[in-house]
Design a protein that fits this description.
This protein has 314 residues and is an alpha/beta fold. Helix content is 25%, strand content 29%. Helix 7 links the parallel strand 12 and strand 13.
Length: 314
């Protein structure tokens, strides 16, 4: 099969690999589309270096094929699989979606939402799943700010917070203002003109690496800041210091900092499917790239030009 093959950090090429064989609890997918997320950029480059100590592979990436987000058709089922059958259309995550075929754990898949193309479905799992988990405690009528609202996680964050009945402020740069408005944000703040003001019950922080004190100032006395991530933390640690500071500060302040470590699986993707089929969430796909240009797709996302999500179609 054709696949993007990555034998070491910082270098990947389109090559040929054997079609993988599904083990117990796994299925073989004919990949139709692969979503691109910032985690894929991190695993392609091996940066921040800290991730090499976190089980993703010290000298080289553990998985020879990049890409996590996947949508496709079940081709074969492994031993013991009863949840899916050949021909089922699914979406979810796997280790290596930048390929014609990939093996995925059944627990990491859900049925593809009706009415979505494969490209749209592949744009959902990692970013949408992260947003669902980050907004778990939101209640109707609360005020929510989404920082990085024009990006992958943020574009779902705005829509999901709206679906939960919150009043949503999206914070983004100028070229993403229209997108964020179209996603349903009640207010859109272009941070290049003036940073966001006001107080919020919850801040979903997906970009900008603002200081903890800046976040606290924008929270109600019992508000919560969910730290998703940002790309301005440097190539050594990726800004994990802010999260460590948050752990230290947490017991001494009335507000709460939550360090999100997304662990979205099939059950979360099913929640997203329900929201999508109800018309409450729609993936914002900025651009599709063919498999032969998968690395350009990752670069497009990293350059911050993408409004919403980037997808590789196979
Ligand atoms: N904790 C977890 O489990 C988890 C899961 C998924 C992702 N992440 C991390 O979370 C971060 C966001 O992921 P993503 O997929 O949404 O990335 P993304 O698609 O690149 O979106 C990030 C957004 O932040 C915006 N941004 C940058 N500086 C900003 C600022 N000062 N104020 C407001 N927005 C700003 C960016 O563009 P503009 O500046 O043009 O608006 C971009 O739209 C990444 O660092 C990723 O690695 C963490």
């Amino acid at each position: 099969m054709k696949a993007v093959v990555q034998r070491r950090y910082g270098s990947a090429v389109l090559g040929d690999l054997d079609v993988p064989v599904p083990g117990p609890g796994e299925v073989l997918l004919e990949v139709r589309a692969a979503g691109v997320d910032m985690g894929t950029w991190h695993l392609l480059t091996g940066k921040p270096y800290l991730l090499r100590f976190m089980g993703f592979g010290f000298r080289r990436p553990k998985s020879p094929v990049p890409g996590m987000d996947v949508s496709g058709v079940v081709k074969e089922i492994g031993p013991g699989v009863t949840e899916f059958a050949p021909g089922d259309e699914v979406f979810g995550t796997c280790a290596g979606s930048f390929a014609e075929y990939s093996v995925a754990k059944v627990s990491h898949l859900a049925r593809k939402p009706a009415g979505l193309s494969f490209a749209e479905a592949a744009a959902v799992p990692v970013s949408g799943g992260t947003a669902v988990q980050g907004l778990r405690e939101v209640q109707a009528g609360q005020r929510v700010a989404v920082l990085g609202a024009g990006g992958g996680v943020g574009s779902y964050g705005v829509q999901i917070a709206k679906a939960l009945g919150a009043h949503v402020t999206g914070v983004c740069s100028t070229r993403k203002v229209e997108l964020v408005r179209s996603l349903g944000a009640d207010e859109v703040v272009d941070y290049t003109v003036a940073d966001f003001t006001g107080t919020y019950d919850l801040i979903l922080d997906c970009g900008g690496n603002r200081s903890l004190s800046r976040l606290r100032k924008a929270l109600t006395p019992r508000g919560t800041a969910v730290l998703v991530g940002s790309e301005t933390g440097g190539s050594l640690t990726g800004g994990v210091e802010r999260a460590v500071r948050a752990v230290v500060v947490n017991p001494f302040v009335p507000q709460k900092f939550v360090m999100l470590m997304s662990n979205a699986r099939g059950d979360v993707f099913d929640e997203l499917r329900v929201l999508i089929e109800a018309g409450k969430v729609k993936p914002a796909v900025d651009r599709e790239f063919p498999l032969s240009e998968a690395l350009d797709a990752v670069e497009h996302l990293y350059s911050r030009r993408a409004r919403g999500k980037v997808v590789v179609t196979i």
